[in-house]
């Protein structure tokens, strides 16, 4: 089999798309990334993101040594303790199974999403095009797929990769059988800078607290950095639970258009004054509401030169912190498969078939664990103090 020269068009410069770009770069495969947003900081997308052993090993595999070192140094200092508490801040003995799987030889890293994206952009930014909203594509031949963007431009590639996230327009058009399903859970997340609230008990500024309320749970995590001159420390918080406790039944996606502050105040009424103060002190613009979605991973069964990774094909609840880690794992698998095509060891169709089976197998387990995590967090409590 002779060597094949590939050009990969990646739609979406999120965590999965950027990790794939690094993997391709390492293998000497040509690529371009097209991102709808005007810049990496156009909209808040969550603040703290836990990168577990799977995510770390995918990043280490795909990134250059210098980029991986920069990523690790951009992460927050590890928490000194993890406590499970009631909304009145009483210690309880309760845990979420998905989190106990944390491998203590390789503890999760607390990445700041914006910093992580900056690091991931660094070595590939000459091939990332912002303000490029993908609209549709056309198979020109077995070796050429053409993408059309909102601004009228086009891009030809050997392979198109949908890395365009939970609301993927590519999935909707070309893989309509992969359905994103609503769940009964909602999530509100935000960040409060250390400077915005200085009166909390000391452990809020160093530790992780998990609050189990009645039908609602919260994760609260200190994000302080070794280099404080370049990154302001903050407390990340996310509240997740059954929609009835938020008083909102409609589906929202990363929304600030509804009255999130009022919904948050109602949902956490009666919680300890320190918690209420923490949520209230957050800059309103940083507080976002999103409905929790899930999906059933399935074979892509799509155009011959189209594949997908990450949330685009397996949206999952954020409850177990697995969505990004799974997207990074996909990126690793896909870049390795494509390296074999470029080397002439496999046909593109065969490599994509292998990738999709491995990706689905891994993501099914992650979706199931996330669903279980979501149920645990939204079940009315049985708090044993
Ligand atoms: C509150 C919260 C906390 C979370 N915490 C964790 C955690 O701790 N650990 C974890 O592993 N996961 C976590 N997740 C899940 C994680 O954020 C996602 O699974 C992850 O971002 C998916 O990466 P992705 O690359 O597939 O998609 P994304 O990161 O969403 O990237 C998709 C990109 O595609 C772009 N795009 C969309 N449409 C178009 C278009 N038409 N044209 C061009 N570009 C387009 C988007 O602008 C975006 O930049 C959390 C999620 C939430 C909501």
Explained architecture:
It is a single chain. This protein has a six-stranded mixed beta sheet, with helices on both faces. Helix content is 32%, strand content 24%. By secondary structure, it is α/β, with parallel strands linked by helices. The chain is built from eleven helices and 16 strands. α1 packs parallel to α5, α3 packs antiparallel against α5 and α10 runs antiparallel to α11. β8 and β9 form a beta hairpin. The chain folds into two domains: 227 residues, FAD/NAD(P)-binding domain (3-Layer(bba) Sandwich), CATH 3.50.50.60; 113 residues, 2-Layer Sandwich (D-Amino Acid Oxidase, Chain A, domain 2), CATH 3.30.9. The chain starts with 6 loop residues before the first strand and ends in a 7-residue tail after the last helix. Bound molecules: flavin-adenine dinucleotide. The site of flavin-adenine dinucleotide has 35 residues, from α1, β3, β11 and α10.
Give the tags.
2 domains, binds flavin-adenine dinucleotide, D-Amino Acid Oxidase, Chain A, domain 2, five-stranded parallel beta sheet, 32% helix, six-stranded mixed beta sheet, single chain, FAD/NAD(P)-binding domain, 385 residues, alpha/beta
Quote the distance from N terminus to C terminus: 66 Å
DSSP strand tally: 16
CATH class of the largest domain: Alpha Beta
At the fourth level of CATH, the homologous superfamily of the largest domain is FAD/NAD(P)-binding domain
Largest sheet: 6 strands, mixed
Low-confidence stretches: none
Side by side, the strands of the main sheet go 4-12-13-14-11-15
What's the structural domain tally?
A: 2
């Amino acid at each position: 089999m002779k060597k094949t020269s590939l050009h990969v068009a990646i739609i979406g410069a999120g965590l999965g798309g950027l990790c794939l770009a690094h993997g391709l770069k390492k293998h000497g495969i040509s690529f371009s990334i097209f991102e709808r947003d005007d810049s990496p900081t156009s909209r808040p997308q969550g603040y703290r993101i836990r990168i577990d052993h799977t995510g770390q090993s995918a990043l280490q595999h795909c990134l250059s040594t210098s980029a991986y070192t920069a990523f690790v140094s951009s992460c927050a200092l590890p928490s000194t303790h993890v406590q499970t508490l009631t909304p009145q801040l009483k210690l309880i003995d309760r845990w979420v199974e998905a989190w106990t799987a944390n491998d203590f030889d390789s503890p999760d890293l607390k990445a700041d999403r914006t910093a992580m994206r900056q690091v991931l952009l660094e070595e590939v930014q000459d091939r990332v095009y912002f303000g490029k909203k993908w609209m549709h594509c056309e198979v020109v031949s077995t070796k050429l797929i053409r993408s059309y963007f909102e601004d009228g431009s086009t891009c030809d590639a050997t392979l198109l990769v949908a890395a365009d996230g939970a609301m993927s327009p590519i999935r909707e058009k070309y893989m309509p059988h992969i359905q994103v399903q609503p769940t009964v859970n909602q999530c509100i997340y935000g960040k409060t800078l250390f400077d915005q609230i200085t009166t909390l008990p000391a452990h809020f500024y160093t530790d992780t607290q998990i609050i189990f309320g009645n039908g609602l749970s919260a994760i609260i995590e200190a994000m302080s950095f070794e280099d404080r001159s370049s990154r302001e420390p903050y407390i990340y918080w996310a509240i997740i639970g059954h929609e009835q406790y938020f008083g909102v039944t409609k589906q929202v996606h990363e929304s600030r258009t509804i009255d999130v502050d009022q919904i948050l105040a109602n949902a956490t009424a009666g919680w300890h004054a320190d918690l209420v103060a923490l949520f209230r002190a957050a800059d309103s613009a940083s507080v976002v509401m999103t409905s929790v979605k899930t999906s059933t991973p399935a074979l892509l069964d799509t155009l011959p030169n189209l594949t997908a990774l990450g949330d685009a094909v397996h949206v999952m609840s954020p409850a177990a912190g697995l969505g990004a880690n799974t997207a990074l794992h996909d990126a690793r698998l896909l870049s390795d498969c494509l390296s074999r095509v470029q080397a002439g060891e496999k046909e593109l169709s065969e490599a994509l078939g292998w990738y999709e089976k491995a990706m689905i197998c891994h993501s099914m387990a992650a979706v199931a664990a996330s669903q279980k995590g979501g149920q645990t967090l939204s079940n009315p409590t049985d708090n044993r103090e």
